[in-house]
Amino acid sequence: MLLTITTTHSPATDLGFLLHKHPDKLQTFTLPYGQAHVFYPEACSEKCTAALLLDIDSVGLVRRYRGQSSESFSLAEYVNDRPYAASSFLSVAIARVFGSALAGKCKDRPELLDTPIPLTAKLSTLPCRGGEHFLRHLFEPLQYTVHAKRHILDSQFPDWGNSRYFSVTLDATRRLSELLTHLYVLIPVLDDEKHYWVDEAEIEKLLRHGDAWLSDHPEQETIVNRYLKHQRRLTRQAFSQLSDTGVEPDEDKQNEEETQIEEHIGLNEIRLSKTAEVIKDFGAKRVLDLGCGEGKLIRILLAEKQFEEIVGMDVSHSNLIKVKQRLHYDRLPEKKKERLTLFQGSLCYRDKRLEGYDAAAVIEVIEHLDSSRLSAFERVLFEYTCPDMIVLTTPNVEYNIKFENLPSGRFRHKDHRFEWTRLEFETWANEVSNRFGYKVAFHPIGENDEVVGSPTQMAVFKRKNLD
Ligand code: SAH
Hints:
Blueprint: E1 2-7, H1 14-19, E2 27-31, E3 34-43, E4 48-56, H2 58-65, H3 88-97, H4 99-102, E5 117-127, H5 131-139, E6 145-152, E7 162-174, H6 176-191, H7 200-209, H8 220-227, H9 232-242, H10 251-263, H11 267-282, E8 286-290, H12 296-302, E9 309-314, H13 317-327, H14 334-339, E10 340-344, E11 359-363, H15 374-385, E12 389-395, H16 422-436, E13 438-445, E14 456-463
Parallel strand pairs: 8-9, 8-11, 9-10, 11-12
Antiparallel strand pairs: 1-4, 1-5, 2-3, 3-4, 5-7, 6-7, 12-14, 13-14
Helix pairs in contact: 3-6, 6-8, 7-9, 11-12
Bound molecules: S-adenosyl-L-homocysteine (SAH).
């Protein structure tokens, strides 16, 4: 069973630092089911490949775990794909051999960790229950380019048709830890099998490794079911924890924290009323609030009769419940209820429900997205959703020094993946406007300090072809 990881990042041998494995060495690790060898078939500054070769001791496995298997025929313990196919054994090896890289640690070159680099992972034999279609459905939403070559069952007997095994190549520009995490979770999912006992500890592993991507993955349900071996007791727990993601358990506290930091200047109110005003002046009737949070903007929009249809979308299910609570939804007059639609969704996936609206508000959301998901977000918002106008706000990091209660160097919220300077924001906004046929204007929100600017920066995008 062979996994190779290649990069053409310059210098490519940085891969050795990221994997904590020296390119000049062959290293061997003893695992409960055999041995794992790590070596570099090529290592120069233009291109570097690390190989993880698993040598499964299939006879030892049978001896050690005899009687625990639920194989369907008596020789199945001996005659099976374990030595050859990528499976949960490979995931265990990744965790054991590349543990630090998987956890996103790099003592010697920490700056490398956050850098997305061009990566190619090759799996020589990957069982894909659900076929190529399912394989693509797992990796393409995570922005991989997938190449898959299916193997026939037996080359001597072509009539027997295809096997479930593929040689698979995955290409993406990502952080190495993300690639390893995706492989770690999704290989056993594709195999739909786990060669070890599955219990509560697996939920924790799944949620930890799936933290940044599972809650809004379109195949989330199948991933959870398969990863937890279809055990209802475990999958139920996992789903209930996942429905809260996007919002961590102590998110309420964190939200409060951000509100407190900005509160004394009443920033949230200024931001939301300015947003509503800009959308109203534009003449919009059908409006999206994307990443609507607990629905503060929705409440303002509902009070304005001009807005005939208001859609609130958020990745967090529990936030949508809070929207309903805040609005006392059950007691709202029917006419107001009819104007409002709420649903769960992610801004990183194309969603037909969002198409055809006049305006969209994306208020304090973009900084919650991983930088590696920004390009997906841009296409979803500007290319597919493409409302006539978009109001988007984000913190201006330059202003942070003026918040006395914010320690220096810290973002305003623990979940913020970045906070941009005015130049960074404006460069980004101008670039996406050009690319997708919008024009953009910028508005400072809150006090506009001569040196550091305003606490919130707002961009208002309008589709060019409206003129
Ligand atoms: N717009 C609201 C909430 C801002 S907090 C307000 O101004 O009050 C950021 C919100 O974005 C959270 O509710 C979070 O759940 C949501 N969010 C984060 N990632 C998202 C994604 N990929 N798609 C949709 N919503 C997302």
